[in-house]
Amino acid sequence: MAAQFVCYVGASVYTPSGIVEQGKVLVDEHGKIAEIVGEAELSVDSEVLLKDVSGLLLIPGFIDVHIHGGNGFSAMSGEYGHLDGISRFHAANGTTSFLATTTTAPLERIEYALCHIAAAVREGVSGAELIGIHLEGPYIDELRRGAQSKTDIRKPDGLEIEKLIEVADRQIRLVTLAPEVRGGLEAVRQLVRLGITVSAGHSNATYDQVCEAVGCGLNHTTHHFNGMSPLHHREPGLAGAGLMLEELTTELICDGIHVHPAVVKLLFDTKGPDQVCMITDAVTCAGLADGDYGEVTMQDGQIYLKDGSSLAGSSLTMIQALRNAIRFTGYPLEKLLPSMTMVPARQAGVAASKGSLVPGKDADFLLLDQNLEVVATFVRGKSVYRRETDG
């Protein structure tokens, strides 16, 4: 009979209460963490299969609430093969859960994507777990649309929003909108009542307008500093509001392109890792070679609209974001981990089961080597990626 429990032995284990050296992480037959101990003996009497992971770091898996695609695959296609491909590509780079993220497009195309992403959530994918949907647009401000489609921007409408939620089988966990547009505050209230996290993004809101939206329940900002009204000493805008309002959790694309390294440090120093939510904003061509890809071009990993007018997503991975953040801020790994695990889990509404190495939660974890390269990725206790080794 196969062992009911698997125990990973010998790694440095990163838990919310500290690093457990030479740790033992016990995973049960349901893919849940059963126990984490150091020198102490395990408390179970059942048969245990031991896995030696000495010399590695065992950390909680990354949760990315803002992914459009990667490795040639697109979330907006809605096709299962694309969503599965996204899940496998990002699992190889440390992501164990993600929200497939839509873009501003014709309403029928958004509905098609929502319906099919919801089906993939129910069916499951083979890499990182698809835990829901991030609806980015179409309720945004034209002035801050960035690479989003100008012609498909819409004003929020309560009945339309309810229809989108139903089409998505209530799998929408996060919505990006511009709270200052007509109907924006009503949309914030409606979504918050339904338990959906609302984020200000692609928005030209003033500081006071952001404060009003926060009073309605808005608690998140989308790719902070990008696609928003900037900080000015006479008008703090959305960028300033994100820095100053403790209610707001701020997304961050930590590639050194979207946000200067010094400003990355400013954000972490000001907000603290418990209010920064690291994302990739990865698009279809992330992971591919430089070149032209439809409406965008990628050079040295930087992705722009072909006319050069705007950045158009990123080629970032979560593991690279972590390495960048360590370098930009000088913070140690353990201080930055919440921004990639517990914070996105909280904002996506899955903190009860994901985001930290705690008994009873899903066994979503990574094995990293000392260079912070991904050796293996586990989702609900199952290996979904393992690095190839020579010989």
TrEMBL record:
This is N-acetylglucosamine-6-phosphate deacetylase. Signal peptide: none annotated. Pfam families: Amidohydro_1. Its EC number is 3.5.1.25. Belongs to the metallo-dependent hydrolases superfamily. NagA family. Keywords: Carbohydrate metabolism, Hydrolase, Metal-binding. It comes from the Bacteria. InterPro entries: Amidohydro-rel, GlcNAc_6-P_deAcase, Metal-dep_hydrolase_composite, Metal_Hydrolase. The keyword Nucleotide-binding does not apply. Residues 58-384 form the Amidohydrolase-related domain. It comes from Paenibacillus lignilyticus. The keyword 4Fe-4S does not apply. One of its GO terms (molecular function) is N-acetylglucosamine-6-phosphate deacetylase activity.
